[in-house]
Amino acid sequence: MKVLEFLQKVKQNEINIEDYLSEIVQKVRKINDEYHYFNSIVENPKPEHKGKLFGLPVSVKDLIITKGIETTASSDILKGFIPKYDATVVERLKNAGAVIIGKTVCDAFGFGSFNLNIGKSFQPPLNPIDKKHVTGGSSGGAGGITQKADFTHVAIATSTGGSIECPSAFCGVYGFCPTYGLVSRYGLISYADSLDKIGIIAKYIEDIKPVLKIIAGHDEKDNTSLSQQVKTKEVECLKVGIVTQALEIVNEEIRKAVEGCIKKIEKHAEIVEVSLQKAMKYGVATYYIIATAEASTNLARYCGLRFGRNEKIESKHFREYFAEIRGKYFSEEEKRRILLGTFVRMAGFKQRYYVKATKIRKLVIEEYKQAFNKADIILTPTMAIFPPKIDEVEKMDIIDIYNSDLLTIPPNLAGVPHITIPVQTNKKFPTSIMLCSNHLTDYWLIDIATKIDKWIK
Amino acid sequence: MTEKAKIGLEVHIQIKTKSKLFCSCPSGKSENNVCPICLGMPGALPTPNKKAIEYAIRLALALNCELAEKIIFWRKCYFYPDLPKNFQITQLEPPLAKNGKLKIGKKIIYIRELHLEEDPASITYPADIHSSRYCIVDHSRSGTPLIELVTEPCFDSAKQCRLFLTKLVAILKCLKIFDESCVLRVDANVSLNGPRVEIKNIGSIKEVERAINYEIIRQKHFAKLGKLKRETRLWDSTSKTTKPMREKETEEEYGYIVEPNISVIEITKEFIEKIKKELPELPDQKAERLIKQYKIKPEFAEILSLDYDLCEIFENIATDISPNLAASFLCTEVAGALNYEELEAKAILDRTEEIKELLEMVEKNKITRKAAKKIVEKLISKKFSVKQFVSTQDMYLVSDEKKLEEICKKVVKENKKAVEDYKNGKEKVLQFFIGTVMKMTNFSADPQLVRKIILRLIENSAN
Ligand SMILES: [Zn+2]
């Protein structure tokens, strides 16, 4: 049942919320035993306030702070951390009557594309279509539960370089990532603050807007939160931009499926060619430099002193203690990104890497602006590959893993809104197309995507 | 050793805002004033305090600095237990302001730059820093707004540093961005043409002078032994010495990046103009005005211009009594008494009326200035009616020659030796005689008259 229909039924007392929620908890537990989508499930979920989303079950990625509910970022170093405050998004959802049912698993701190980078205390989520495969990451739990749930539910997820788009594509659901700054990040555990966004994963495209309307909007607790209004757009004949280069690098089956979509869209819109040369060429490197530089400073606070893991400290020099805690509880990928990020901002390397990357990001934003002069939206495949098997990923080279974000990184770097739509293929797994539009045209993009979703079905 | 010392200061000034620099917790020494932001909790984000920015701009303007066009905050990354996020939000490029000047007498002190940053938590050790098995981290200070001010190495003595800091504090108070509850911490770079030594953690202006003087002597000594090296030392206010820091300071590497959670803040011309218009009268302008308006001596005008509250008292009474008397009494007797009791003039603001009454009595020759001094020494610790005090203590001026002669005779008689001394040329003894008589009369005797009588008595005394 779609969100609006569900909310209507609750309003008219056709659904008993209490019964519905306790039934959901049972179902979630059962799914979780098999697929591992949740780090924690709320015992007795119930709405705390009356509001526009009264009774709506929502899962929250475990990278977002929830008052009184363990929040771990799926990292061992934060195991046991029970926050004393709510993220703005969570607060807004609760105030609107939505119900948090649990915290979904993700790559630790959002560091990953396959949701296999998790602490030892966590279990990797399994693809809802075939358990031998990954869900994609970093919002793997969110993608998985959205596909698997046979009840009304919306997942709150986050994206830094593709963490909403990738699992949405691999699990066959819709993912939406807003304009940077549209949704408050207050209470989102920082991975790379200048890139982090909170967005939505949903089973139906119509489910995105009602939830976005609640969580979007200026928040004075987030200094980068935008105060401008979201724009609407009048378009006589929709111009859809295609990036040829993006189609050339993807898996053959995926390319066929996406080209099939383009053919169908062509009946309703004008297809134009746009260039995202810089984004395609330098995007991955730029992203990993900026993201790890910021991440390495964000993760400095995890040292066993104020929250999360701590151990006997007396008689130890603090350096020794910090090194011990960080050495023990950070995973290999967390350590890799800390080292990489520290390296690129050190004297002697900073100009060559960090400073240069921030300049290239500006060029990428400029490139998108140019592209949006030619096209109203840009369409690319979301992922170049189908979800790999878990044991295949373990054999992958780290550079190949980082490169798998090639198509999702550009809109994330530019901070433009984007949405992914699942597309059927001739294979076992579906794939996905990604549509992006100019800054602050989020609702318009969702409306256009809803139309396109119908055209391609 | 004749090398001149070359000293530069790095001053950390806590400023008096209602809330901390990046959160809404109350700033200052209240307990439990912490929140997820100043504790560096995961997910908490900083929001810059506009008032702190305005305050820093006020200081920058008062010190004739060039202001940056935009404010950018940076992350300065290093691990330390007092730093909740293990990075400090500060400024790097551009600093909020640079190239300032402040005149100390005839010397110009050049200010390289000043910027805003957050104060870390405070650490206390149960014992000595090196031998303690644990330390206590108090986060109530965490996130307090600090202005860091860096001077060029243009001082050549500890005294000059003290004068600069005294004037700086006077300016801060004038600007109403600092008071007694705010802390000033200083690091000093000291060199005698040799290696540069940094002294960290000096907690007050007096200590700055002590620490630098100590360091100059230490460096001279070590230079003679050929053992002087570049290092960072810690000022220990208990032993009044500088001690080497245990950790070897390698070239500092902070891996600065721009703080991505704070948008760039434009400093508009309108905003600067508004702050400029609201700037109060600064010490130099004040001294100039005091000289012009009240015709008082420049040295008194300077003292008053540097002590905001003492000057308040002065301006409140100078309309009713002679400004010269008021200024000299406040700058010598009152300032001396305050200094002795380690009090600030602020503590006696409510005694302005009493001071005025005292000086009126001095002016009308009802009491001696000495008596006024004695009374004011009491007055600074406790408020009381001075008129009543004068009459119960019998302190009204005595100019009855007969009465005074009796006392003088007694004193001369009892101090035959002193009379001899005087006759042998020790003229200072006269002061002793007058002083003794003053004491015996509870400072009510007319000192001029006493002087006359004593001289006559000595003259007339038999050889
Ligand atoms: Zn706070």
Report strand order across the widest sheet of chain A. 1-3-2-4-6-5-10-11-9-7-8
Number of strands of chain A: 11
DSSP strand content of chain A: 5-15%
Which structural class fits the helix and strand makeup of chain A?
A: alpha/beta
Corresponding CATH superfamily of chain A: Amidase signature (AS) domain
The main sheet of chain B orders its strands as 2-6-7-10-1-11-12-13-14
Unreliable runs of chain A: none
Q: Find the biggest chain interface.
A: A-B, 47 and 32 residues
Q: Report the average pLDDT across residues of chain B.
A: 92
- The coarse overall form of chain B would be elongated
The number of distinct helices of chain B, counting runs of at least 4 residues, comes to 15
- Main sheet attributes: strand count, strand direction, barrel closure of chain B: 9 strands, mixed
3D architecture notes:
The complex is a heterodimer of chains A (457) and B (463). Chain A has a single domain, classed as Amidase signature (AS) enzymes (Alpha-Beta Complex), CATH 3.90.1300. Chain A contains 16 helices and eleven strands. Chain A has helices at residues 3-11, 17-35, 88-95, 140-148, 165-171, 208-215, 244-248, 252-266, 277-298, 318-329, 332-343, 351-374, 390-395, 398-403, 409-414, 442-456; strands at 38-41, 57-61, 99-104, 154-159, 174-177, 197-202, 239-242, 270-273, 377-381, 418-423, 431-436. An eleven-stranded mixed sheet of chain A has the order 1-3-2-4-6-5-10-11-9-7-8, sandwiched between helices. In chain A, helix 3 links the parallel strand 2 (57-61) and strand 3 (99-104). In chain A, helix 4 (140-148) runs parallel beside helix 5 (165-171). Chain A is globular. Chain A starts with a helix and ends with a helix. The model of chain A has no long low-confidence stretch (mean pLDDT 97). Chain B is an alpha+beta fold. Chain B has three domains: 6-276, no CATH class; 281-392, no CATH class; 401-461, Arc Repressor Mutant, subunit A (Orthogonal Bundle), CATH 1.10.10. Helix content of chain B is 41%, strand content 18%. Chain B contains 15 helices and 16 strands. In chain B, the strands form four sheets. In chain B, strands 2-6-7-10-1-11-12-13-14 form a nine-stranded mixed sheet. A three-stranded antiparallel sheet of chain B has the order 5-4-15, with no helix packed on it. In chain B, strands 3-16 form a two-stranded antiparallel ribbon. In chain B, a hairpin with a 5-residue loop joins strand 11 and strand 12 (197-202). In chain B, helix 5 crosses helix 6, helix 7 (308-317) packs antiparallel against helix 8 (323-341) and helix 7 (308-317) packs across helix 9 (352-363). The longest helix of chain B has 21 residues, at 205-225. Chain B is elongated and about 90 Å long. The two termini of chain B are 56 Å apart. The A-B interface holds A 64-65, 71, 73, 78, 81, 83-85, 87, 185-190, 192-194, 220-224, 293-294, 296-297, 300-301, 303, 305-307, 313-315, 318-319, 322, 342, 345-347, 350, 354, 358 and B 36, 39-48, 75, 77, 79-81, 84-87, 133-134, 137, 253, 255-258, 260-263. Residues 20, 23, 25, 34-35, 37-38, 143 of chain B line the site of zinc ion (ZN).
